[in-house]
Write a structure and sequence with these properties.
- The strands form two sheets. The chain has an eight-stranded mixed β-sheet with strand order 5-6-8-7-9-12-10-11, sandwiched between helices. A four-stranded antiparallel β-sheet has the order 2-3-1-4.
- The protein has helices spanning 3-18, 35-44, 71-80, 91-106, 121-134, 184-196, 205-208, 220-228, 282-293, 324-339, 354-357, 365-372, 397-423; strands spanning 26-30, 51-54, 62-66, 85-90, 139-146, 152-158, 170-174, 211-215, 298-306, 310-313, 350-353, 376-382.
- It has 424 residues and is of the alpha/beta class.
- Helix 1 crosses helix 4 (91-106), helix 6 crosses helix 13 and helix 10 (324-339) runs antiparallel to helix 13 (397-423).
- It contains 13 helices and twelve strands.
- Helix 10 (324-339) links the parallel strand 10 and strand 11 (350-353).
- Belongs to the peptidase M14 family.
- Its cofactor is Zn(2+).
- Keywords: Carboxypeptidase, Disulfide bond, Hydrolase, Metal-binding, Metalloprotease, Protease, Signal, Zinc.
Length: 424
């Protein structure tokens, strides 16, 4: 047998064994007619152990992963309500194909540029450390704390004035809050790259007029776990053995706003477990502390997720911020810029309040940042290519990075204009 064929066969066999947990799992596309259909998915989520990859709306289907033993009752519940659906894909085979594509892509990757592939934590941290050494006048590496499993939570501060010029707004970006959303760290790292290593003449205003805080992986433990054990893991990895044998908290339900009110579970084994109390997790404490430390200057907080092609803003209790018109203007500018470069197979970006565009969710970082006084708090859901869900082939990484950078840069320039009004 040819050596390359043998290696390929062995890699496929390994990936299938590694992902055996998902044997028989299927993702269903569910046609959403109105908010009641999303509410049904949320209502039966725990009963059928659903993993809701994406809530939908009348223009976009929801996507739901269902264990084999619950597929019959799940489809029966949909049929009882007249909700249409179709099988999308067998997850085990999709995971095998995804891993094969990643292995082939990684054979020709640039090891020094972890925004070009799905890098591991050690590679991401090494990149930030290198930039802080090579560009000490502009890049500062900060370790915010240690995770439950002892990993460092690192972010970079980018500033030409050492964060001392109070006339400059701060743009705070974080990614990989949900660990399976692998396409988000490359976007954060590419943003760092464009601001530091590849700063072009037309973008010099972005570092001269704006200070940046970029946290590429908010959830290092969960992110590593998706690489080594369970690709679809969503939460962090904290464990309180006296409460449950199940690990993890959904970090985007753990912030101190509308805590536990909607689309959040108190079951430690649930995908949407909110934690026992607000800010119970070191990861959310870190983001909270950054927000408060620079609250008087943070003009934009962007929480990057995947997937859906959305720019969303608060609040998730069906109320709107006082400056909603301005927030929508910024969000629409981001979406429009991205849409000018998007691929035909990707959806156009939808912009709006997260409650009305998608579904209510309590304890989110987006709502918390807006509530404490960040003028523009946004959730950016990266492109939905309709066929891949979270398993975005790495060949799309350069495209996602470049198009999202256009939206991020546009928001930064608007932040300068609105910050001048804020401080004058």
């Amino acid at each position: 047998m040819d050596l390359k064929i043998l290696v390929s066969f062995l890699l496929i066999a390994y990936s299938l064994a590694k992902h055996e947990k998902y044997n028989g799992y299927t993702v269903y596309n569910v046609v959403i007619r109105d908010r009641n259909d999303n509410a049904l998915l949320d209502a039966v989520r725990d009963d059928f152990h659903l993993d809701i990859w994406k809530f939908g709306n009348p223009t976009r289907d929801a996507a739901v992963m269902v264990p084999p033993e619950y597929q019959a009752p799940f489809t029966k519940a949909l049929n009882n309500k007249g909700i249409q659906y179709r099988n999308k894909e067998d997850i085990l085979s999709a995971l095998g194909e995804f891993e094969k594509e990643c292995n082939l892509w990684n054979q020709r990757r640039d090891l020094a540029q972890p925004f070009t592939y799905y890098a591991r934590m050690a590679e991401i941290n090494a990149y930030m450390e290198r930039l802080s050494r090579e560009y000490p006048d502009i890049v500062t590496l900060v370790t915010a704390g240690q995770t439950f499993e002892g990993r460092s939570i690192n972010y970079v501060k980018i500033s030409t004035t050492n964060f001392e010029d109070r006339n400059k707004p701060i743009y705070f970006i974080d990614a990989a809050m949900h660990s399976r959303e692998w396409s988000t760290p490359p976007v954060a790292l590419y943003t760092v790259h464009r601001l530091v290593e590849d700063l072009r003449n037309e973008d010099r205003d972005l570092v001269q007029d704006v200070d940046w805080i970029i946290l590429p992986v908010q959830n290092p433990d969960g992110y590593e776990f998706t690489h080594t054990d369970e690709r679809m893991w969503r939460k962090n990895r904290s464990l309180k053995a006296s409460v449950s044998n199940c690990s993890g908290v959904d970090l985007n339900r753990n912030y101190d706003i509308f805590f536990g009110e909607s689309n959040a579970s108190q079951d430690p084994c649930a995908e949407s477990f909110s934690g026992r109390y607000p800010f119970s997790e070191i990861e959310t404490q870190n983001v909270r502390d950054i927000l408060h430390a620079y609250l008087d200057r943070i003009q934009i907080y962007m929480n990057i997720h995947s997937y859906g092609s959305y720019v969303l803003y608060g609040f998730d209790n069906a109320t709107l911020p006082a400056n909603v018109a301005r927030i929508h203007q910024v969000g629409a500018s981001i979406g429009a810029q991205i849409d000018t470069k998007k691929l035909p197979e990707a959806y156009h970006y939808h912009v709006g309040n997260s409650y009305f565009v998608l579904y209510p969710a309590s304890g989110t970082s987006q709502d918390y940042a807006q509530d404490i006084g960040v003028p523009f708090s946004l959730t950016l859901e990266l492109p939905d290519f309709q066929n891949y869900g979270f398993l975005v082939p790495p060949k799309y990484i350069p495209q996602i990075n470049e198009e999202t950078w256009m939206g991020i840069a546009t928001a930064a320039r608007l932040s300068v204009l609105f910050y001048k009004e804020r401080i004058n």
